[in-house]
Specification:
heterodimer; A: 169 residues; alpha+beta; Alpha-Beta Plaits; two-stranded antiparallel ribbon; two-stranded antiparallel sheet; 6 strands; 18% helix; 13% strand; globular; B: 294 residues; mainly alpha; 3-stranded antiparallel beta sheet; 7 strands; 8% strand
Chain lengths: 169, 294
């Protein structure tokens, strides 16, 4: 099958999910990941799940659903990957999984309510999420996309959501 | 018609006549069950130094990779790394030295398949002719198709669909999602359905990429049943042939006949004509053909 047919198959399915730390870009990740389950097994928070049919090519690859269980950046999973689909990153700051985005319409702080739940939840305290002059959360480029803020946000359905790195902004 | 080892012991003229032993059979079953229990218990142990499944096992600093799954990923990603060579080498050497014992002694799916096989009606468990002749072609074509599709689609299909992976990843995924992992469960169910409803043990014999590659890795010096014609006193339909899970006649071994070194034939031999050896059998067998066809 040529490249364009494979690209067509890819387009039929949902955008890529949130990956564990150190993941290669989507195409290389789906190809190199042998679905051995070691990262899923080693995760102490059971945050990693095998992707379902909706993931298309990513079928069976590890993914994170932050609202179920976010990544706690313990960095135990990258070293156990046997094929290098997860590069061996050790620093939580290098996790590069994605970036959180504030949904202003739902965020309490944008409606004048004093809420800093996401800032308190952030493991990169004061670096990834900051308060602007009107005490509203603003995500900086230091955000690695762990999803702890998304998990804790009290707004219905979370007013701060991680956009996985694989998504086109 | 049925033959019993007891009847044949009286027929066999030379050699010490003994009834079937379960020497290898018992050890093999114990090994299979121990490995299955190991993979079921492993996710609950929460260990970080020992993790993995039958396609990739990490034992401290040692990283073992199943060759078919690893090659499939290398084809899909079109890359070669040290991980490939270092991980695959020990497993490939095992197959070269001992034959495809991965299938008969280690594989948890193999254990499931053997168990299902016992549920089959007796009639469908009988082989006719030389079943491994046609199967060999299917096995090689399936392996080639797996690798070609991996390369073309950029998806490591041989790893994704490998039955040993499905069987051993299930406990990990079930624990992580605290439920039934739908994809793995349905793939495993589909493969087991083929095994139960299709031709006898079709997945293990012909469709599994892991088994196909393990068979390719056999050499003339891999461990195999060795046949000593002088001591054999059995008729054409011998108990060893009847007990072979693949319908191979252990008196006429070929390099790529699909023998997985389970050694059931050696256990069953009433006269001691079959033993284990790293060397191919020699000499013409009953004037039909030489012992090992390359």
């Amino acid at each position: 099958m040529n490249g364009s047919a494979a690209a067509f198959l890819r387009r039929l399915v949902a955008p890529p999910p949130l990956r564990p730390p150190g993941a290669l870009d989507e195409r290389a990740f789906d190809a190199l990941c042998i679905r051995c389950g070691r990262c899923i097994e080693v995760c102490p928070h059971r945050a990693l799940l095998p992707a379902g049919v909706g993931a298309g090519y990513g079928l069976g690859t590890p993914m994170i659903e932050p609202r179920r269980e976010p990544c706690w950046l313990c960095m135990k999973c990258p070293p156990v990957c046997p094929t290098g689909a997860l590069r061996p990153v050790h620093e939580p700051r290098d996790a590069a999984m994605g970036r959180a985005r504030v949904v202003e319409a739902g965020c309490y702080a944008f409606q004048g309510v004093l809420c800093r739940t996401c800032l308190d939840a952030c493991p990169l305290q004061g670096e990834a999420i900051r308060q602007d002059t009107e005490l509203r959360p603003a995500v900086t480029e230091r955000c690695v996309g762990c999803g702890l803020c998304e998990r804790r946000c009290p707004a219905p359905g979370s007013a701060i959501r991680v956009v996985p790195r694989g998504h086109r902004a | 018609m049925s033959l019993h080892a007891g009847d044949l012991a009286t027929v066999g003229k030379p050699g010490p006549c003994r009834t079937a032993s379960r020497r290898f059979g018992r050890w093999r079953r114990a090994t299979q069950i121990a490995i299955l229990l190991f993979y079921v218990a492993l996710p609950f142990a929460g260990a970080t130094s020992v993790t993995g499944t039958l396609v990739a096992l990490k034992l401290g600093p040692v990283d073992l990779l199943e060759p078919a799954a690893a090659l499939s990923a290398a084809f899909a990603a079109r890359t070669v790394g040290w991980w490939l060579l270092l991980g695959v080498a020990p497993v490939a050497l095992l197959a070269a030295a001992l034959g495809p014992v991965y299938c008969s002694w280690l594989c948890s799916f193999g254990l499931l398949s053997e168990t299902l096989d016992r549920l089959r009606p007796r009639r469908s468990r009988r082989w006719s002719g030389q079943p491994w002749v046609g199967v060999r072609r299917v096995r090689l074509s399936a392996l080639a198709a797996f690798f070609a599709l991996s390369l073309g689609l950029g998806l490591p299909l041989a790893a994704l669909l490998a039955p040993p992976r499905l069987a051993t990843a299930l406990p990990i995924e079930a624990l992580a999602s605290s439920g039934l992992p739908i994809v793995t469960v349905s793939l495993l169910a589909a493969v087991l359905a083929i095994e139960l409803l299709g031709p006898r043990r079709l997945v293990c014999r012909a469709l599994c990429p892991v088994g196909a590659l393990a068979n390719l890795l056999r050499t003339p010096f891999s461990l195999r049943p060795r046949f000593d014609e002088q001591r054999c006193g059995c008729p054409d339909i011998a108990p060893c042939l009847q007990d072979c899970p693949w319908g191979i006649d252990p008196r006429e071994m070929r390099l790529h006949d699909g023998c997985t070194t389970c050694l059931a034939c050696v256990d069953r031999c009433p006269s001691g004509a079959l033993s284990t050896s790293r060397r191919p059998s020699r000499g013409p067998i009953r004037g039909r053909s030489p012992g090992l066809h390359l």
